[in-house]
Amino acid sequence: MIHRIFSNLPIFKGLEFKPGLNVLVAQKEEGASEKQTRNRAGKTSLIEIIHFLTGSEAGKESQFRSAALANETFGMKFELAGQPMSIERSGHQKAKVHVEGADFLNGKSRLSNTEWIELLSEKMFGLHAIPEVDGRKATCRCAGAGETSS
User: Fold this and answer.
1) What is the pTM of this model?
2) Which of 15, 53, 80, 138 is the most exposed place for a label (fewest CB within 10 A)?
């Protein structure tokens, strides 16, 4: 479960989640049609931040590497394998993540993004249990915005 999404960016409006279904909706002005919502509620940005924090590629075109956001840190407090933890990542150091909390981190607080993806794969989906086939081990490549996964 995700508990909180946050950033050190002063204008960022952090989100707190409660147990159960949480819904983020756009506002509609009176008289607006079905397709006329008051955008900028942050729905797409929320998904992009979660994607970034769960290991997506942050290529040159990533908004997290733009001049406006590269030095800002985004984070998430959540539960992984039943343990509370937090993750923080910035576009400036896209290949590294700062993690805290869970016992299975064995005191580590800095992981490469590749290590982070492998840890998520293991703890969320048990992918460590997939055996090698013909000398090849399964890999994970998370797609960034505009990319397709392979």
Assistant:
1) 0.77
2) 138
Interior/surface letters 40-71, b for 16+ CB within 10 angstroms, e for the rest: eebeeeeebbebbbbbbbbeeebbbeeeebbe
Nearest Cα neighbor of 64 from 55, 76, 73, 77 is 73
Neighbours of 9 (CB within 10 A): 14
Q: Rounded to whole angstroms, how far apart are CA atoms 72 and 35?
A: 33
DSSP percent split of the chain into helix, strand, coil, nearest 5: 20, 25, 55
Query: Does residue 84 contact residue 103 with C-beta atoms inside 8 Å?
Result: no
> Rounded CA gap, 53 and 74, in Å?
8
Rounded Cα gap, residues 107 and 103, in angstroms: 7
Domain positions in the chain: 2-27+37-129
Q: Give CA–CA dist 4/142, Å, rounded.
A: 22
**What does CATH list as the number for 2-27+37-129?**
3.40.50.300
- Alpha carbon distances (Å) from 133 to 19, 115, 137, 140: 40, 22, 7, 15
The Cβ of residue 12 has, within 10 Å, a number of other Cβ atoms equal to 16
